[in-house]
Amino acid sequence: MALTLLRGIRTPTLFRTNVGLFCTARHPPLAHFTTRAGGMQTTEPKAAPKSIQQATKEAAEHKTRGFEAVIGIETHVQLSTITKAFCSCPYNYGSQPNSTVCPTCMGHPGTLPVLNAKVVDCAVKLGLALNCEISMTSKFDRKQYFYPDLPKGYQISQFDIPIAEKGYLDLDLPVEFGGGHRRFGITRVHMEEDAGKLLHSESGSYSQVDLNRAGVPLLEIVSEPDMRTGIEAAEYGAEIQRLVRYLGVGNGNMQEGSLRCDVNVSVRPIGQPEFGTKVEVKNMNSFSEISRAIDYEISRQILLHKESQADQIVQETRLWDESSQKTFTMRKKEGLADYRYFPEPDLPEVVLTSEYIDEIRNSMPELPEAKRRRYENMGLSMQDVIFLANDDNVAHFFDATLERGADAKLAANWIMGDITAYLKNEKLSIDEIKLTPLELSELIASIKNGTINGKIGKEILVELIAKGGTVKSVIEEKDLVQIADPAAIEAIVDQVLADNPKQLEQYRAGKTKLQGFFAGQVMKASKGKASPVLLNKILAEKLKGNQ
Amino acid sequence: MPPPLQAHRMLLSHRRASPIPRRRFTAAVSSLPSAPAKTLAPGPGPSSILSIRESLLSGERTAADITAEYLSRLRRTEPIVRSFIHVADAAAEREAQELDRRIASGGQDAVGPLAGVLVGVKDNLCTANMPSTGGSRILDGYQPAYDATAVRRLREAGAIVVGKTNLDEFGMGSTTEGSGFQVTTNPWDDSRVPGGSSGGSASAVSARQCVVSLGSDTGGSVRQPASFCGVVGLKPTYGRVSRYGLMAYASSLDVVGCFGSSVVDTATMLSVIAGHDKMDSTSSSHDVPDYRSDLVSLNLLESKPLNNLRIGIIQETLGDGVDTGVISSIKAAASHLEQLGSVVEEVSLPSFSLGLPAYYILASSEASSNLSRYDGIRYGRQVSADDLNELYGDSRSNGLGHEVKMRILMGTYALSAGYYDAYYKRAQQVRTLVKKSFEEALRRYDILVSPAAPSAAYKIGEKANDPLAMYAGDIMTVNVNLAGLPALVVPCGFVDGGSAGLPVGLQMIGSPFSEGNLLRVGHIFEQTLQDFSFVPPLLADS
């Protein structure tokens, strides 16, 4: 009964504003863009940031030619609550169609919504994280329209009294995009339920309805039109994703549609106070696509302005097409849709107490912006700051390492260097390795106090990441303690000089470059354990002294 | 003088209820009996439920016997009355036999408070093992996956659901003529309507096709048919009974209510179905008293049992447009209440006449939204079409009836951009006014009384083409829904019509969650109303 064939529905009529049709698996996973220190959550490490930089540059050029873009974003965040917003069905992405449904989320007669309290928890958390005013009393409303993936014929949402409003979001742009701190206004955050999904047949002759996603809780975040470039919009999206993950309210996965951004773009001549005609752009599956789609759209609109065809910019929804790197008209807006909102009579008002809000506030972790400011104050470079703060797991590891007494700059170097290289190679995340923050700080200390040298340190690190254990045990087990006894080193140096009379002769004949050769041989003979400082000092003396 | 409550005894013992002695248009108060009536068993009062329970426990009769008795009466009267859209006679017989086995092996403990009681359920309440259509063709053949909470609680108390009763489509109507399936007649006169929208549930109890029944009341859908059919009807406080499983018409006004042939039965039923339900966030967690045990039986009554009770008779309900016979009956009932010791005064509710238009705007607005789910996509009738809008349009225009479409259109209009403030919002303001004026009146009076309808049952077809006249008939009841208050309708008299007169019901309105008090007063009123029998002539024919 649940899987109903819709005979002969024309596919174009299926595209609508308020459904995330384009986050389905119809599109193959697309490359994310990566910024080396941008910290955006990426799966493919070596996508080319070049094109984005180029696009940004182009956009910048357009701007200098007398126009500026105005960008606002509506973000839908799917919450990873155990059960749906208004019934006790679970939701797992990718489940068999219509396997996690019940009479309530299927909109059967007589069923009633019962609010999942966790949804309010998440909304208040995110509202606070976005520096919003939390409404002590908010309510639900019905947003009404007909569509096969909307079982009740209305979506339970919040209309005139959202749970949170009037906030802002602070972020730091990646250094390679020029850097800089930005504050973007947040208009509102409200709670609502997701719709199901339509699955269209290959032939287009019928469609099927999957209601697994129907009733899954969403938070919709509406930004002020404060962004001006594609990269700002992409970074805004990425920061929302970080918050969602930091707070643990959702997985923020764009590929699965757990985080969806609809972008409104308009352009205007610089100095003009009024906004231009805005165009909605959808169907971006990564932050890189958001950035490129917006920059494309800005160029398109500015070009029309320059060709005196500004009247061709109309209120419409355009889709980003990743293969052609262009936006296309999906649907022109014929007047404003009338959703006939009215208060949801099946749900009581959501009344919060200040104790409840304080409790949530106190339970919140340190957020990315606070972290970045803290790291900045430690004297780390902005590149380091962004890298360390923008991934919750990395930040956690870094902080724990510092707590064990490690030096911030050294710890940052180890994490951003050898550890990250290893993680990339093995496709692991930092919380999946056996190395503990304690051992990293031990390692740093062991190098600093001369127990081992830096080269041995790198070897030990790999051992610890892969197999675990302690720095001490690895050093003992492998007999890796640095040879700091001058006599022992002198003996090795003597031996090496004795073994290489030919090179010694050449050295003494003036080929002083060979000192490096001898140093390498000594280090090799010491199995890498010789203190480099002592080695170089003694070797130099010997090479000189025997003259 | 016949002993009081003869009608009930006659019913229970299957004797003919003829001839019916009564006086019309006069106060029907007899002096209170000086000694307990011999025929009354000690206990709270005349009750079919109690009588069934006692005979099951004593072994006098089996559940199968009782079921067979009701089913045979149902089969005999149903061709005339047509109360039921679906009769589950085989299931009822099976459940009765099952109960008999449990009684035989487990004894008294196996018998719930409603054991062996046949219940009719309005077809807009979901039942897992029976079709549930809401009286609409668009749900023809639809069988829900679950029982409505009220139905589940009745079943858990041992009740046997005998079938699904007819109604105006999705509860929208006042005659039951708006059913997508059939027209139900009034057991007092088969040329007349039983009222509505719970007409099937009212007529089924009136014709004793079942012991009690469930209805729903959005603007009077329990109270008006109770009045038309001469049975007791209770509209509980909004939120007193869970709406889970009730096909929503107007969610902020809908309540599940009940019908019985006596106040005691109605009270017994309310105790079972009332209470918080986690599936309905608007259900109240207000304590549920044992409504039945709070009732005082006739033999224990003092001479002035309603001493200290202040009753306000709503002035606006006894004026123009109200049948003179109805006014006389209500005035007679008022003087009866006075004789029982209460103080009765006229009270004015200035916002009373505003309630009707406000109600129709709010109810239609909510209905336009609530009925969106009947789109032919997931269940119910689907008309195949070449494109999506056509599929919606054809499925809905085909499956939904005229009155429903009209209310959807009205509601859609009222909620549309540019009209919302003038209609929906304004109606909400009126609702607040209505609520306040009731609150004020109920500070001065314990109970407000009025007719349950401006007339007795009218002819089938009489108002079928005049929706405004039909809407006007809801004037007595809609205000109570707007204010969310409880109201009890008890038969109080007759007007001319049919072969044996047509019953008139007295509506008693109380403060939120004062059902106990309404039932107490209703019970005293009913027991002391000695000269009337509310057993319809239909049952005297056999």
UniProtKB/TrEMBL annotation, chain A:
Allows the formation of correctly charged Asn-tRNA(Asn) or Gln-tRNA(Gln) through the transamidation of misacylated Asp-tRNA(Asn) or Glu-tRNA(Gln) in organisms which lack either or both of asparaginyl-tRNA or glutaminyl-tRNA synthetases. The reaction takes place in the presence of glutamine and ATP through an activated phospho-Asp-tRNA(Asn) or phospho-Glu-tRNA(Gln). GO terms for molecular function: ATP binding; glutaminyl-tRNA synthase (glutamine-hydrolyzing) activity. It catalyses: L-glutamyl-tRNA(Gln) + L-glutamine + ATP + H2O = L-glutaminyl-tRNA(Gln) + L-glutamate + ADP + phosphate + H(+); L-aspartyl-tRNA(Asn) + L-glutamine + ATP + H2O = L-asparaginyl-tRNA(Asn) + L-glutamate + ADP + phosphate + 2 H(+). This is Glutamyl-tRNA(Gln) amidotransferase subunit B, chloroplastic/mitochondrial. Heterotrimer of A, B and C subunits. Coiled coil: none annotated. PROSITE patterns: GATB (PS01234). Keywords: ATP-binding, Chloroplast, Ligase, Mitochondrion, Nucleotide-binding, Plastid, Protein biosynthesis. It is found in: Mitochondrion; Plastid, Chloroplast. Belongs to the GatB/GatE family. GatB subfamily. Its EC number is 6.3.5.-. Pfam families: GatB_N, GatB_Yqey. Residues 396-543 form the Asn/Gln amidotransferase domain. It comes from Brachypodium distachyon. It comes from the Eukaryota. Gene3D superfamilies: 1.10.10.410, GatB domain, N-terminal subdomain (1.10.150.380). InterPro entries: Asn/Gln-tRNA_amidoTrfase_suB/E, Asn/Gln-tRNA_Trfase_suB/E_cat, Asn/Gln_amidotransferase, Asn/Gln_tRNA_amidoTrase-B-like, GatB, GatB_C_1, GatB_Yqey_C_2, Gln-tRNA_amidoTrfase_suB_CS. One of its GO terms (biological process) is glutaminyl-tRNAGln biosynthesis via transamidation. One of its GO terms (cellular component) is mitochondrion.
UniProtKB/TrEMBL annotation, chain B:
The keyword Phosphoprotein does not apply. InterPro entries: Amidase (IPR000120), Amidase_CS (IPR020556), Amidase_dom (IPR023631), AS_sf (IPR036928), GatA (IPR004412). GO terms for molecular function: ATP binding; glutaminyl-tRNA synthase (glutamine-hydrolyzing) activity; hydrolase activity, acting on carbon-nitrogen (but not peptide) bonds, in linear amides. Gene3D superfamilies: Amidase signature (AS) domain. Its EC number is 6.3.5.7. Its main location: mitochondrion. Residues 65-519 form the Amidase domain. Transmembrane segments: none annotated. The keyword Protein biosynthesis applies. GO terms for cellular component: chloroplast stroma; glutamyl-tRNA(Gln) amidotransferase complex; mitochondrion. It holds the Pfam family Amidase. GO terms for biological process: glutaminyl-tRNAGln biosynthesis via transamidation; mitochondrial translation. It is an enzyme of class 6 (ligase). Keywords: ATP-binding, Chloroplast, Ligase, Mitochondrion, Nucleotide-binding, Plastid, Protein biosynthesis. It catalyses: L-glutamyl-tRNA(Gln) + L-glutamine + ATP + H2O = L-glutaminyl-tRNA(Gln) + L-glutamate + ADP + phosphate + H(+). Subunit of the heterotrimeric GatCAB amidotransferase (AdT) complex, composed of A, B and C subunits. Allows the formation of correctly charged Gln-tRNA(Gln) through the transamidation of misacylated Glu-tRNA(Gln) in chloroplasts and mitochondria. The reaction takes place in the presence of glutamine and ATP through an activated gamma-phospho-Glu-tRNA(Gln). This protein may be expected to contain an N-terminal transit peptide but none has been predicted. Belongs to the amidase family. GatA subfamily. This is Glutamyl-tRNA(Gln) amidotransferase subunit A, chloroplastic/mitochondrial. The gene is LOC100823644.
